[in-house]
Every structure is written in C-alpha cells, then in structure tokens.
Design a protein that fits this description.
There is one protein chain. The chain is mainly α and 80 residues long. The chain folds into two domains: 40 residues, Arc Repressor Mutant (Orthogonal Bundle), CATH 1.10.1220; 37 residues. The chain contains four helices and no strands. It starts with 9 loop residues before the first helix and ends with a helix.
C-alpha cells in the first residue's frame, strides 16, 4: 500500500479527525470511502465497470459509442 503526505489547515485536520472519531474510522478509511463516493477508481476498476455496463446494456460497441456521444453532447449543452 502506498503512503501519501498532504497538507491541511489545522482547522481542516481537526474536522477530519472529528469526522473519523464520529464514524469510528481511520483517516485512510474515510479518504478511501470519499474517493469511492466521487467515483475515483483505478484504471483496472474502471475497465471492469465499463465491461459490466456493456454486458448488461445489450448494445454493440458502435451503439454504445453513439449513446455515449449523445450523452456527452447533452451534458455540454446543459452547461451552456
């Protein structure tokens, strides 16, 4: 497992420690859960997720690409 050093304000660090105590979690566990919540995954996990979605969708690769492009276009239009 890799180690990471981050710099937090004292106020943020105290809030993090308090949140950990309330949830009976370590800082590492809380950060790991937060990364999952925000959808941050390893490349292998992301590939597996896409593979499962493709299998469940019943779409061909071309159909999936067209649907994805349509969704990206719609999302960009909503941001304007």
């Amino acid at each position: 497992m890799s180690r990471l050093t981050i710099t937090l304000s004292e106020k943020r660090y105290r809030a993090l420690k308090q949140a950990c105590a309330q949830r009976n979690k370590t800082i590492g566990q809380l950060i790991d859960e937060s990364l999952d919540f925000y959808g941050i995954k390893s490349q292998d996990d992301a590939h597996a997720l896409v593979q499962r979605a493709r299998q469940r969708s019943g779409l061909t690769e071309n159909q999936a690409l067209i649907a994805a492009q349509r969704e990206v276009k719609a999302a960009r239009a909503r941001k304007r």
